[in-house]
Write a structure and sequence with these properties.
This protein is an alpha+beta fold. The protein folds into 2 domains: 180 residues, D-Maltodextrin-Binding Protein, domain 2, CATH 3.40.190; 145 residues, D-Maltodextrin-Binding Protein, domain 2 (3-Layer(aba) Sandwich). The protein is 34% helix and 16% strand. The protein contains 13 helices and 13 strands. Strand 3, helix 2 and strand 4 form a beta-alpha-beta unit. Helix 1 crosses helix 9 and helix 6 packs parallel to helix 13. The chain is globular, with a radius of gyration of 20 Å.
Length: 375
């Protein structure tokens, strides 16, 4: 669940768990041609393979898929990985599950040309849009179901799942929380954690944006959010610990600012854990799915995308409390898991989705001001 995601080093920096940066190349990135004569790493749809059956055949021949930064408790990724692996008989190598979005890009650069490089990415907005040159365009079979604002026209990146920023808290350890301002009260001294570093992790970025909106800021002005965290730190309430299921269940992080689907997942294991989406404007956000253009298993990477955007894959995201990007057409078709949809945390505020331009402005502000605010 955490997005702290540090890469240590073989010699001085960069040792990935199950993905060793200093290891010699085992083989070059995957290649070969499809039946239609297209290079596998350049295939832009299942049609380039001759259809889904041929794509499945090519992916099975590769036999493996490398994913990174996918915690089992994040948007149901543990079940998603297991289901994909069993469905297609493909081994999924899951490296550094607690890594941040930027660490995914770092790993791909460090591992380029090696069989251990990530095949696919799951990224926050700012990191994804800053690295589109590393992605391979691909349109899944359900591509037309996905609203235009949630995808690049050629499939270089596509939103996969999303949610609303929330506050989770252990009602057995702290008083009820109704809004962001409550977090400054002395009852929460040393208890308020943010999921990651907002200059590197999408969840933390959106957490600061949520706070900014509550303090009179806007998607164009994240400064009030940074100032609130300065006050939180000065009051002794900010807890500089990246939350995980373990820290929540042990009581180490009794208050967590994170996506609603991650906080909601904890209610299944800790009945006293409550989730509130603060009233007023509600920060909504989607993660970005992309294929590494240098993927060592290019067919498996493309099959993974097809799976994630199928009804089965989208309902698996929903089973983890995340809102699938194809929710509306699936509702219309009657293929959505209605019970899981109805169980999502209530949201009363007006949704706010940060635009590309607003994201860049906020990212630049955080880069120049976050460290001094909480340092």
């Amino acid at each position: 669940m955490t997005t702290s995601r540090l890469l240590a080093a073989c010699t001085s920096a960069l040792l990935l768990s199950g993905l060793v940066a200093c290891a010699p190349p085992e083989k070059e990135s995957g290649g070969g041609e499809t039946d239609s004569g297209v290079q596998v790493g350049e295939a832009t749809s299942a049609a380039d393979f001759g259809g889904m059956d041929k794509l499945v055949e090519a992916a099975k021949a590769e036999g493996e898929l490398n994913v990174i930064a996918l915690p089992p408790d994040w948007a149901n990724y543990g079940t998603i990985i297991d289901t994909f692996s069993k469905k297609y008989g493909i081994k999924v190598n899951s490296a550094q599950p607690d890594a941040a979005s930027q660490d995914e890009i770092n790993a791909a650069n460090q591992q380029r040309g090696k069989s251990t490089a990530p095949d696919v990415f799951d990224l926050g907005q700012s990191v994804a849009l800053a690295n589109t040159g590393m992605f391979a365009p691909y349109q899944v079979e359900t591509f037309d179901d996905i609203p235009a604002e949630f995808k690049d026209p050629d499939g270089t990146w596509v939103n996969d799942y999303g949610g609303y920023m929330s506050i989770g808290y252990d009602s057995a350890k702290v008083p009820p929380i109704a809004n962001v301002d409550d977090l400054l009260k002395p009852e929460y001294r040393g208890k308020v954690a943010l999921n990651g570093d907002p200059t590197q992790a999408g969840a933390a970025f959106s957490g600061v944006m949520m706070v900014a909106l509550s303090q009179g800021g806007s998607a164009d002005d994240i400064a009030p959010g940074v100032e609130f965290f300065r006050k939180l730190k000065d009051a002794g309430n900010f807890l500089p610990v990246d939350p995980t299921p373990a820290t929540i269940e042990s009581g180490q992080t009794p208050v967590v600012i994170d996506w609603d689907y991650l906080n909601a997942a904890e209610t299944k294991k800790l009945p006293s854990w409550k989730v509130v989406v603060p009233p007023g404007q509600a920060v909504a956000g989607y993660y970005y799915q992309a294929i590494n253009k240098d993927a060592p298993h290019p067919a498996a990477a493309r099959l993974w995308q097809e799976f994630l955007y199928s009804d089965e894959g989208q309902n698996l995201y929903l089973g983890g409390g995340a809102r699938p990007v194809r929710a509306e057409p699936m509702q219309q078709a009657g293929t959505i898991d209605k019970a899981a949809w109805d169980a999502l945390p209530p949201v009363s505020g007006e949704p706010v989705i940060v635009s590309v331009e607003q994201n860049k402005k906020a990212t630049d502000y955080l880069a120049g001001n976050w460290a001094s605010a909480i340092g």
